[in-house]
Amino acid sequence: MPEALADLQQRFGAALLDPDAPTAGLFRGPSQHTAHCIALYRGNLAANWGKALGNACPVLRTLVGEDCFAALARQYGRCHAHDEGDLNTLGGGFASFVANFEALAPYPYLGDVARLEWALHRSHYALDAPRLDASQLAAIDPARIETLQLRLHPATTLLTSPWAIDDIWFAHQPAADRSLPADPRRTSRMVVLRPAWRATVRSLAAGEYAALDALSCGAPLGEALEQGFDTDPRFDPATAIPGWLAEGLFAAPNLSQEN
User: Fold this and answer.
1) 150: which residues sit within 8 A by CB, 6+ positions away?
2) 54 in a domain, yes or no?
3) CA 100, CA 63: separation in Å to the nearest integer?
4) Which domain range does residue 99 map to?
5) Could you list the mean pLDDT of each consecutive 10-residue stretch along the chain, which spans 259 residues?
6) Quick one: which of 123, 129, 132 has its CA closest to 155?
7) Which of 6, 65, 107, 150 makes an SS bond possible with 250, Cβ 3.0 to 4.6 Å?
8) CA-to-CA distance for 219 and 213, rounded, in angstroms?
9) What per-residue string of b and e applies to 226-251 under the rule 16 or more CB within 10 Å gives b?
10) Together in a domain, 35 and 102
11) Dmax of the chain from CA atoms?
12) Distance CA 201, CA 222 (A)
């Protein structure tokens, strides 16, 4: 009786992921020819994984080297099911995978480097939703400003790390104005943003990060600004707010629902 299509597909998928899986009968013709064809498929699949993840994490690829990164991509692809046709979504769990990859244990900051790069990747492809600007904020009743709740724009992400991943990332950019840190053990706080169609990173002081983090968690504007000042008295809302608006960090509010 011919093999059921579903069973054949299962065996084909298993052979793509495991070079030791049996391949007999997957194609017509000699078994050696079948094994060769499957190997070609497998190699192309691994190459696509490596290309997709390398495009998302170029700094990590540079840090670990091409061969190591290719091995990471192969192992990650085999261990993480991906049922979408868009390979740009492949790396959602890559940072966690890197952080827990035993061979990279001597370099514990690499997982957070991958996390930063994935945030940049997501920012690049994020929806271009309307942004809150100064004129919209000025149109809101001043009596309601302190209780206003702002939502981060889809292209905006906050990150913090016990490692100097911001310096590591900046050191690998064209015309870099920062050097690789001699000791990466430094807390870093960042916002990933896309002010003009290009995702980038800005390092944050503790007070500004605390204020933005509070806003991202749903705190009203007045409370969030207080948290920023309590964290660091040098935090200046009069400087921060215009900067946030210029960068487009927040989605435009639905004023019909706000009223």
Assistant:
1) 132, 215, 221, 250, 251, 253
2) yes
3) 17
4) 1-107
5) 67 71 67 74 88 98 98 93 83 97 97 99 96 95 94 98 98 89 96 95 99 98 98 98 98 67
6) 123
7) 150
8) 9
9) bbbbebeeebebeebbeebbebbbbb
10) yes
11) 80
12) 26
